[in-house]
Design brief:
With 418 residues, the protein is of the alpha/beta class. It has two domains: 232 residues, 3-Layer(aba) Sandwich (Rossmann fold); 165 residues, glycerate kinase, domain 1 (3-Layer(aba) Sandwich), CATH 3.40.1480.10. 38% of the residues lie in helices and 19% in strands. Helix 7 packs across helix 9 and helix 12 packs parallel to helix 13. It is globular, with a radius of gyration of 22 Å.
């Protein structure tokens, strides 16, 4: 069996299990008496909008607007698709958020607000509360993404600076709301997906301030003013949520199960290590390397051929000036820890097709990855220290490049021992 082919096809199976084209139609509601307004934000927003249009009754009114990342737009007829900045918010995203909020406020009790949310929606749906500006959000977001904060910590800050997230969209709507959500966060908590425009927010301004203090960020003064003045978001139990349903329609676990089914058809034993793996990417890699080494030395409980699968969202504390994302960071740390362990291969990719901010979904390692690197004069620990993992795998021709997948259920990792 070809290890590279096994790994790449398992990733394809994981992505396919989260394809909105097949998933969204099963969750569409009946049209209301009045109008249906479709709004959305995220890397999967455009394909979700397409799926709605293709399966909505032709005689039922339908209109709307969704915002997605640059390069992710798809043709639609009734639902406008706008491209905007990710992971740093920009003016196009802010204008889209304003338009969404305005249209939502015009709905009546006879209408329906159909929301389509997926990973990436937090930056794409940026609408700062005054006196904070878009520039303030951009400065703060860059710091939050580099400091090693978890997505939950980042979103605790974002929600309290937004006029639309943290349940504030639901508070502005008089119509019933159905939110169809593709989860890209561990635990599938809807409040952390697109920063929860239609979900109660259990976090507080004090929590947001704690995050800023914990990571010692250089916070713009307008941001501190908002948080210190205690501009709170709607909380669990608030009346505004009595007409809201937030429904998770795809997540990491289902994708891991699909990959497991693929490996089992190719006679590999499978162990799913979990879909909620978090922590520093390089440290998670060390722990998974230790597990594979244990299996390699003492195969009394788990025997090769075996596939170890995991999902979730690791973090990277950026200390160097290189290029890379959390998946290539994980893989390079894994390769160093394995140190050429025979018959052991791995893939790590983001299911949206973009690892960090580069053009790759992730990469692959093989037992000879470090040998090939040394032959090219590359010292692996040096690249890891500089967070230059993209460059490392590019020079080995081991990047996985898929282009936009139009979905996002977070990271996919598979280690196979043959």
């Amino acid at each position: 069996m070809n290890p590279r082919k096994l790994l790449l096809e398992s990733f394809t199976a994981a992505v396919k299990a989260a394809d909105p084209v097949h998933i969204v139609p099963h969750h569409l509601p009946k049209p209301p008496v009045g109008r249906t307004l479709v709004i959305g934000a995220g890397k999967a927003a455009a394909v979700m909008a397409q799926a709605v249009e293709n399966h909505w009754p032709h005689d039922a009114p339908l209109a709307g607007l969704v915002v997605t990342r640059y390069g992710h737009a798809l043709p639609t007829q009734k639902i406008q698709v706008i491209e905007a900045g990710h992971p740093i918010p920009d003016g196009r995203g802010m204008q889209a958020a304003k338009a969404i909020l305005t249209a939502t406020r015009q709905l009546t009790a006879d209408d329906l607000l159909l929301c389509l949310f997926s990973g990436g929606g937090s930056s794409l749906l940026a609408l700062p509360l005054p006196p904070a500006s878009l520039r303030d959000l951009q400065v703060l977001t860059r710091q939050l993404l580099r400091c090693g904060a978890s997505i939950q910590e980042i979103n605790a800050v974002r929600k309290h600076l937004s006029a639309i997230q943290g349940g504030r969209l639901a508070a502005a709507c008089r119509a019933p709301i159905l939110a169809l959500i593709i989860s890209d966060v561990t635990g599938d908590d809807a409040t952390h997906i697109a920063s929860g425009p239609c979900t109660p927010d259990p976090t507080t301004c004090a929590d947001a301030l704690d995050v800023l203090d914990r990571y010692r960020l250089n916070t713009p003064s307008p941001v501190l003013r908002i948080l210190r003045e205690n501009h709170e978001t709607p909380k669990p139990g608030a009346f505004v949520f009595c007409k809201v349903e937030n429904r998770i329609i795809a997540n990491s676990h289902r994708s891991l199960v699909a990959a497991a089914d693929y490996f089992q058809t190719h006679t590999l034993n499978v162990q799913i290590l979990g879909d909620t793996v978090t922590g520093e990417a390089r440290e998670i890699a060390k722990s998974q390397a230790a597990l594979t080494q244990e299996i390699h030395r003492y195969p009394h409980t788990l025997r090769a051929p075996i596939a170890l699968l995991s999902g979730g969202e690791t973090t990277v504390t950026v200390r160097g000036n290189g290029k890379g994302g959390r998946n290539t960071e994980f893989l390079l740390s894994l390769a160093i820890a394995l140190d050429g362990q025979r018959d052991t291969y791995a893939v790590a990719c983001d299911t949206d097709g973009i690892d960090g901010s580069e053009d790759n979904a992730g990469a692959i390692i093989t037992p000879d990855s470090l040998v090939r690197a040394r032959q090219q004069g590359m010292h692996a620990p040096h690249y890891l220290a500089r967070n230059d993992t993209y460059t490392f795998f590019k020079q080995l021709s081991d990047l996985v490049i898929t282009g936009a997948t139009h979905t996002n259920v977070n990271d996919y990792r598979a280690i196979i021992m043959l």
